[in-house]
Amino acid sequence: MTESPAPAHPACRFQTFTEPSNPAQVAPRVAALRAALTAQGLDGFIVPRADEHQGEYVPAHMARLAWLTGFTGSAGNAVILKDKAALIVDGRYTLQSAEQTDPAVITPTRMEETVLDRWIELNLPPGARLGYDPWLHTVDGVARLEKAAAAAGGVLVAVKQNPIDALWSDRPAPPTAPVKAHRAEFAGESTASKLARIQEALAKAKVDALVISDPHALAWTFNIRGGDVEHTPLPLGYGIVPREGRPTVFLAPEKVTNEAGDAIGAVGEIAPPAALQKQIEALGAAKAKVRLDAGTAAAALATLIRDAGGTPDAGTDPIALMKARKNAAELNGTRAAHLRDGAAITRYLSWLAREAPKGNLTEIDAVAALENERLKTGLLKDVSFTTIAGAGPNAALPHYRVTEASNRRIEPGIFLVDSGGQYEDGTTDITRTMAIGEPSAEMRDRYTRVLKGHVAISRAVFVKGTSGAQLDALARLPLWQAGLDFDHGTGHGVGSYLSVHEGPQRLSKLGTTPLEPGMILSNEPGYYKEGEYGIRIENLIVVEERQIPGGDRTIYGFETITWAPYERALIELSLLDAGEIAWINAYHAQVWSKLAPLVEGEAKSWLEKACLPL
Prior knowledge:
Radius of gyration: 25 Å
Number of helices: 19
Number of strands: 28
Strand order of the largest sheet: 4-3-2-1-5-6
Helix content: 25-40%
Number of domains: 3
Protein name: Aminopeptidase P family protein
Domain Creatinase N-terminal: 29-151
CATH class of the largest domain: Alpha Beta
GO cellular component, one term: cytoplasm
Structural class: alpha+beta
Largest sheet: 6 strands, mixed
């Protein structure tokens, strides 16, 4: 995998439509890796889709899984043994993995059927030495791998140098995007204040220092932003926050702008990334107990601390929850961003309603047009993720990414678009499903059931302490009643000019973190009929406190902050009750009130009709 090619469409600044994979390269690269492993006395090697920060997006020079296997999805692992190999991905990527790799060399494997450690347990030969890069796995992850290797009669071996790096002759250079200060008007809290809260949490946890391994946490704590990965304004680096005293930020000095350097320098020190190991070892030598984020900290960090005489403490990074609870400035910023974004979406949907029925548009045309509408705001910094624009059967792929090879013409049926923008004051994420021509009765039924689940989440009230897992079923019940469901979570957390996917909050069967005021989440149930069509409806929502007359418990609900009409042509009124109709009508009245002053001409006329009461 080389650097991203030039945009394939003249209207797109932030997205490309070429497919970097070449299955023909898989066999020679796997053969070269096997030869390198043999030379090192290893019988196999694990290749995760991860960098040392365990982020959702990895920079090009860390995309080792894509280089070796051809697979470019956002999650997966490969295990290369002497006589067999597997590419283990979740159900989102079953088709993609089979298309992108060489199945004669690497067997695509569904994670739902065989997870990584189970595959190792079943396939690693007795006595085999299985290599891994300790910078690409967490402490808990390594423990599971060690257990699996032992169960197979083998042993897990940490390597000092990743063997792929020596084979990757055209490996891209590390990113050099500038690190900039995030303005106080958008951050809403000074770095000094955040550090005081973090150090108070460290004292309460009785640990001596925190290693910040998650770049999102680093960016939030020090009020900085960067551009080292796609679509998320992250500076890749580390930080060490002692329980007392000044912290250190580890960033390439040449990337740090004067303004950001001055801001960090006012509260802490800046050191090059190469200095991280020495400072970690110094903490160990001082017998320090050092908190590591269990979700993102590399196992190598724990080894450095332990070998130097300290105690690694893998647990919860206190920054994660602080970052999730947005302050007033962050919430006001994201509300402003969503109004701006809603106007762009309205212009886009109006255009789509006029042009799509003519039969001349493709998915790529639709992606380019939407990015262009956001660019017209003059404030777009990036898209918040690669736009999902699926026509017909492509809409049934929840994480579909259009390429020049997969690009479909938008024909009568269903068209789904899931997209977002990165603005300095907020991050947006919205999905709308449109009918092109006359939809079938089944499409109307399925869309309305998805809408009922979406409205149920929007209207939910719940007691303090409730987690996303306890609310997730509300979005699924109308589908369950028809023997239907969807295979992704109902919603994820969202950052403030940071990642569009942010934890720990989520609306999901796996969402165990209690929801608290200020948390932003998505509300996006769906339905997917493989090979035919897909439906998803998404707004962003904010947890807020509610006053219930006569109540004696603290009650929360959701404020909706996304503004765009639902697809009237797909709503089956007979499936909605009076309360649901009233909520939809009230929402559309707000959409009209908020967006009408921001659009004009054909877009305004379209919006007025789209927002009429049901």
